[in-house]
Every structure is written in C-alpha cells, then in structure tokens.
Design goal:
The structure is a homodimer of 438-residue chains. Chain A has 438 residues and is an alpha/beta fold. Chain A is built from 13 helices and 15 strands. Helix content of chain A is 39%, strand content 16%.
Chain lengths: 438, 438
C-alpha cells in the first residue's frame, strides 16, 4: 500500500460499515455512491452532514457545533461576512474574463504582488492550486530546457495529470515516472539542512546523468502531506543554492503555507529565500475557487513564446474581489500575528502533552500548522491506528482533525486562522481526555 | 504562424499601438503589462474597461452599453440575479469540500445527471473545463490502456499541459506531439460525415500502427474554434461507431455547446449519439468557476484504481448552488427554446446578408452559436483582415464579437442565451452598415 492509500484510509468511509447507520444516512450514502461513484470519498467512520459554517466552527444537520482544526481553505474563517459580501457585490456587478480591462483585477494584482520580494513581479491568475502547479512546471521546463522534477516522498501538489506525476501521495503504484525523483522529507532533528541538500544533490545528479535534465525542485515549504516540517527556520536555503548551481528553478508551492498560515505571509519567508516561482491556491479566496502563479517577467515571457496560455475563469473580477477581501481580513484582524501567537501557545500545550503521554513521539510546526506524531512508546515506530483512533474519537467530541505523513501517524493541526487561545485550550483538554482513555 | 496565433492576433492588443491613447488608458495598460507581463492579452485595437454587466449587455467605464455577441460564460445573462443570490446565500451559509455530506451538492448532482442518457450516471465535479478534459483524458487512458488522442486541426480543449497537447489552437510549433493526431474540421458541405470518418479512421490506424494505440476522439461537437460546424445533424454518428470499433472512447467536450447553447441541452444530442465521457465547464455556473465530468461508473472505477483523485474546490456547495440556479434559469426562462428560435431567426438574417454581400462566404451553426465566413468574392480565399476589420468596427458601434477558425476569417457569434429577436435585429442592422461601408 502506498503512502497515499494509507493517508486516505485514515479518514475514508468504507461502504461496508454503513449497515449500522440510521435509514436517512444510509439513503444519503447510497445516493452519493450512485452519483459520485468510485471518486466519492468521505471523512470518518461515521460521515457528517455539514449545513453551516462560521469562524472556526462547522455545524451539522442536527445543529451540533464542531471545532474545525482541519480546514485551511476557509482560512480567514468559514463564511466570513466581509468575503461573502465582496463576492456577492462583485458577482452582481460584473463577472468576466481578463481580455477586457477591469479595475478589481488590476487592483488585486498590484496589492498581491506588493507582498512578494522584488524579482517576483508578474502574476498569472488561475482557478486552483493544481492549475498553478501545472503552469509552474511548464514555465520551469521552458526556462531550463530540462524535464526533470524533484519532490518529497509523500508530497501532494495537485490533481492534473502533469501535477499528479509529482504528487507521490496520490500514487497507487510505488514507482515515480522517469522524469521525477523522490527525496526524503526533512528530518525532524539533527542536521536537517545537510541531510535534505545531500539527497537533493544526489537526485539532481541522477536526473542530469539520465539525460532528462533538472528543471525544478517543487516544495511545499511546510511539508504538509509529508508530516509538517518547519525547523530549523532557514534549512531550505542550501537547497535553493544547490538548485541554482545546477541551473534549475525553485518552485515554492504556497497552497498550504501561504497567506499567513505559518505566522508569516509566505512559507518560503521562514527560510529567508526568494523562490523562482511561487504557486498559490486553497486559502487565496477563502473558498472561492482561485489560484495564482507569481514569477519573474523573463520566465513568464519565455513560457509564452512556447505556448498560448489563457485561463477563462482565472482573474475574473469576482475572484479578485474575494482575494482582496481575504487580504483585508488578514490585515484588519491581525491573522498573521494571531497565527504566530496562538500557534505558539498551541504548540506549547502539545509539547506539554508530549511530556504526559509517551505515545506522542513528536510535535512540530509553525504558526497554525502543527503536526503531532503518534509512535509506539517502546519502539518509536509510527502508530497509524492510534492516529486514526484519535481522529474518530475527537469527531465524537465535536472536533474535526485529520492526519498526514508517509506513515499516516501524524495529526495534522491546521485550523482557520481566526483560531484563538480559547479554542486552543478547548482542543488541548479534549485531546488529553482522548489520550487518557486510550 | 500557427492557427492559434492567427486567432489571437485578430483581437489582440499590441503594445506598440498605445501612443495614441489618452493618458489614463496608457497608465492602465502600463500597469497591466507590469503585473500580468507576457501572459496579458487584451481584446481590440483599443481595449475596453468593463465595469458592469446585465443580461446581454456589458457597460464600460464611461457608461456606454455594449451588446454582447461573444461571451458564452455568462450564459444565462450577465450577473443574473437568481444566480447571484444563490451564490451569495450559499457562500454565507457553507463553503466546504466534498468529504463531508452536503445537500446542495447531492441535489445538484442528481438534477444534472438526470439530463444525461442512461449509461452516463457518475459525475466528478471540477473547477474548470481544463480540469475536466485533463481528467477525461486520463480516464480514457486507464480504460483503454492506450495513449493516443485525435482532435480537429484548430481545436481548443483547455490549458493544462495534458490538455494543451490536444489543443492545436494553442500550439506555436506546427507539429503535434507523438500521441496526438490532427484531423480536418468537418466540411461545410458535401459528404460531411463520410469525409470526417475517413480522416478519423486513418488517424486511428496510424496511432495503432505507431504502437501508441488509440485512447479517444475528443470533439467539441459545435467545433467552436474550428469555425462552427453543426450540419447535417447526426454527422458524428459514424465517427462514434468508428471509435468504438477501434476500442476507443468518444469524449464529448460540452464546454462550448453544453447547457442549451445549440438549442438542445447538449451538443452531442444534435448528433443522436451517447458519448463515453462528457466534459463541462464555462457556462455551468454562469461565471462561477466550475466544471464536471460525466461518465459510466465502470470507467470512473477503472481510473480510480490507478490514482487517487480529489479536487478541493470541486463540488463545493457554492458551486452547486450556482449550477442549480443556472438550471433553474434555463428552465424558467425557456432559454433552450429561445436559443433555437432566436438562433434560427438570426441565422436567417445572416443568410439574407450573404445574398447581399459577396464577401460573406458562408453562414453556419445551431441555436445561438453561429459562424459567418469572410472570403474573397472572386477566389473564395479566407479573408482574415476583413474579419478583423468587422470586429473592430463593430466595437466602435458597441457590439462585442470575436473570430474563430483555422484561418481566423469566421465571425464567432455566441451571445448569452437571453439574446432576443430585438437584439438580433439590432445586430443585423449594424453588421449591414459595416459591410456597406467596407
């Protein structure tokens, strides 16, 4: 079983279990299977019907309130009224593509680009993180003339055919395609930078020797699906140097860490580096489907010589209005500062639990993106069943959480950024209850 | 110069022309170039800033009203209040992915699937037509075990790397990749079915002989970027038979003809055939970014064995609400019937103009998707400069229109579906004025 299947299996509802459910739920599940077929995947042993969201909370059909520790798309809070009204107002006024001038799009592009270091001055708006990474890879190939990509072993970068090839967490077969090399996720301790760059250099050399050549390293700088690795800050800098020495590009996939998640605007900023291409998605519009690619003008120009690129929905003024409202809320509500401060408090609480419970093998992360490993207290081996157990018991306690990592044994703690100390306290208490009873 | 560049060049604003513009517009264009770089493409010799849309009209920054004969994304009308309020209400309530149960998504899936013939009972929701075609191609490869695709010579199916390979209208190089075969667009007259299927069979044989094998024929059944070919109804049936004889799949790309455009719900229905996979995009949410793939359960299951597929924004309840509202409006306002009736009236008017003006070489189409060729009256050769002239003069007369076709000489007439006889009359009068003065 590959990493992907392990991670999916953690939360996946399997049809065979449904005999015990009440008739209404059984009927709903049967209808879902009949319409969405084999592509239907639901969270939890007992799936939840959601009807409403607000801030850090989701509400099910029976009115129960869940504390959301998982969803990073509604990053400034579920159904944030400022974002909702921006979408509603712009949708009522104008929704059109970018071949006419529209001020919302120009204003948003200017404001977003001001968040990037100097050489990154061009923006292409897309609809999803997948479209963004698909485009970034093609830009890298056009610029370098090479075809090889390097990613971490449990990486996820999106769902197009091109991007699935660099998303081993979606593989069902064990092997990557010939143009892709997998390297280990960063170590949790020791010489993190040195180990990472050593594997990277070997992979680059291997791609070069193969004749495929080295186009780009693609990293989600918080290593979300690998199990969340943030420290020590700066450890990716030698990787950037190695990439540039080899004539390749560094693609920072900010779909997960971007827009304040780690207590800074961008995940790459934690490493003090300037990527060649930055890709964005999920939190960009707080759920309005939008993504983006930011790069150097000369790289974009090189790509545009090779192919005509147009994205119908990309850069529509409703997306721009949603994106602008997200930036407003991040600033006005101090969400980056909150991610840093509340994230630190939460991490401290989790480290406290680690002293109390031997089966917690590690606590890592930055801002409001934290990972907590469950391991066998004696052998230290990854304990995926324990992660699965905790997720399903927390669901009964009205807390939503998921798992990550190559072995699926890492709790992935990633609440909306309006998560406050009182929510952290509540979560820590419930987690302690679960661990005491386990 | 490839087909793509010819089509783009028709409407593309080239930076060198801007010296004559007023300072405000110059500044806006400079800012756009600085932010969107080489990927920025604007319509018209003199670009337009749009600020508002309603029904079949767009309004520029000076308040001028344009009759929109071009935009098919706002298919039920620009900023339709029913769609806008559905989006606003659902965004205020809940916007989440499909791993929880949500009723809006289940209801929409059931309602949409009821529009398809029996074996097509599974739906995967995506965010764009590009994502839909990317997924459809991978399903076809998984099902057939083959890698080859056949498309028409000026086809456009989307912007991911995989889909760009079957979109020759985006190529800058003349040649298709090894796994892609290009066949001629349908003929405008004569043995349309016979010619089309003969080229198709040759391409299938060529793919099979190459060892790549034949996975699928991908057709936009109104042949939008090829220049709009609709007649005789049914001419694609022999193509379907040839595809199935060869063990391949027929992928109907309904991004252009779908949702009532041709006077029927689906473009493929005009040909009396049942595709193996149907893809949807642009008009599905009237501008809310959404797309979909409909296929047989066993095909989807086969694909899901090979790869994990999840689409974060795909199937969010706001998209479902938008999609549901679009179906409401299509039904309540009788837009399919209107597309058939007003489209027929418009086509009749254009055929009348053809008798009056020798430079009109042909008029074709179905419903509210019509093509009008400009040709040299003596030689019959495609007259692309005339199409470009007409487009830019109509813009001065506050009518928005574009071009299509391998030679870029075909006016692409594709207004929102709430286009009524009075709009047709107005357009025909303005077009006559332009042709008289030309």
């Amino acid at each position: 079983m590959s990493a992907a299947r392990q991670i999916l299996a953690l939360n996946r509802f399997e049809g065979g279990d449904k005999a015990g459910f009440e008739a209404g739920l059984q009927e709903r599940l049967a209808r879902r299977e009949a319409t969405f077929g084999a592509a239907s995947v639901l969270f939890y042993e007992q799936p939840i019907e959601m009807v409403r969201g607000h801030g850090v909370h989701l509400y099910d059909a029976a009115g129960a309130e869940y504390l959301d520790m998982y969803n990073n798309v509604p990053s400034v809070g579920h159904s944030h009224p400022h974002v909702v009204s921006a979408i509603a107002a712009q949708a009522a006024r104008l929704n059109i593509h970018t071949r006419y001038l529209t001020r919302p799009v120009e204003d948003y592009a200017t404001r977003l680009l001001a968040q990037f270091p100097a050489p990154l001055t061009n923006l292409v708006m897309t609809c999803t993180g997948s479209e963004s990474n698909d485009l970034a890879m093609r830009i890298a190939k056009a610029v370098t003339g090479a075809g090889g990509f390097i990613v971490t072993r449990a990486a996820y970068h999106g769902n197009t055919e091109t991007v699935t090839a660099i998303s081993p967490s979606s593989f069902t077969a064990a092997a990557a395609a010939a143009h892709v090399r997998l390297i280990s996720a960063p170590a949790a301790s020791g010489d993190v930078a040195g180990q990472f760059v050593a594997e990277l250099r070997a992979a680059i050399a291997d791609l070069q020797a193969s004749g495929i050549g080295f186009a780009a390293l693609v990293v989600d700088s918080i290593f979300s699906s690998d199990g969340i690795f943030a420290d020590p800050a700066g450890f990716l800098q030698p990787a950037l140097d190695a990439v540039h020495e080899a004539g390749g590009l560094f693609i920072a996939d900010e779909v997960q860490p971007g827009f304040g998640r780690t207590g800074m605007m961008w995940g790459f900023a934690r490493h003090g580096l300037v990527p060649d291409i930055v890709t964005m998605g999920k939190p960009m519009g707080n759920g309005f489907p939008m993504g983006g690619v930011v790069t150097r003008p000369e790289f974009l120009a090189r790509f545009c010589q090779e192919t005509g690129y147009f994205n119908t929905f990309g850069g529509n003024p409703v997306a721009a209005a949603a994106g602008e409202a997200v930036l407003d809320v991040i600033e006005e509500e101090g969400l980056i500062e909150n991610a840093a401060a509340t994230g630190a408090l939460l991490q401290e609480g989790l480290l406290g639990l680690q002293k109390e419970f031997a089966r917690i093998g590690g606590v890592r992360g930055a801002g409001l993106f934290l990972g907590l490993d469950f391991c066998d207290p004696d052998s230290g081996a990854p304990d995926q069943p324990m992660a699965s157990h905790v997720i399903n018991v927390l669901r009964q306690k009205f807390i939503l959480i998921g798992a990550a990592g190559l072995y699926g044994h890492t709790l992935k703690i990633r609440p909306p950024l309006c998560f406050r100390p009182l929510h952290a306290g509540w979560f820590l208490e419930r987690l302690r209850e679960v661990l005491r009873a386990a």
